[in-house]
Write a structure and sequence with these properties.
Blueprint (H helix, E strand, L loop, with lengths): L2 H36 L5 H39 L9 H26 L5
Helix pairs in contact: 1-2, 1-3, 2-3
């Protein structure tokens, strides 16, 4: 691949990863909003349904985030072979870190729903 094609791939995967990250944040925010506003009023079946939907969509987004940033990292390393002075930067460890933070964020939001539905007696 030429340097231009590699730079284009790097840019495409960076944009794709950012898009999936924004989508994941939107899903997380919507779930947290529902948990905060109506979580205690939901029936058990409704909570099961919304939790399953949330876990499924979060998993899809997190998988897409990791895949995008992993590809971004790969093509960044390839462009560095062609031109070591290329300004692009991305490391596989960063893809893993971002994925881990997203997983923890999803778990924390599930815990938030649990806390809303099971308040501690004061």
């Amino acid at each position: 691949m030429t340097e231009y094609e590699l730079a284009d791939a790097v840019s495409s995967y960076a944009t794709q990863g950012g898009t999936f990250m924004a989508l994941w944040i939107s899903i997380l925010s919507a779930y947290a909003f529902v948990a905060y506003t109506t979580g205690e009023k939901l029936l058990r079946s409704q909570v099961i349904w919304i939790n399953c939907l949330y876990v499924f969509t979060s998993f899809l987004c997190i998988t897409a985030i990791y895949g995008s940033y992993k590809s971004h990292s790969y093509y960044t390393s390839q462009i560095k072979l062609v031109n070591p002075n290329s300004p692009q930067s991305m490391y596989h460890d960063l893809a893993i870190l971002v994925t881990g933070v997203a997983i923890l964020g999803s778990i924390a939001t599930l815990k938030f729903m649990w806390d809303v539905r099971h308040p501690k007696a004061e």
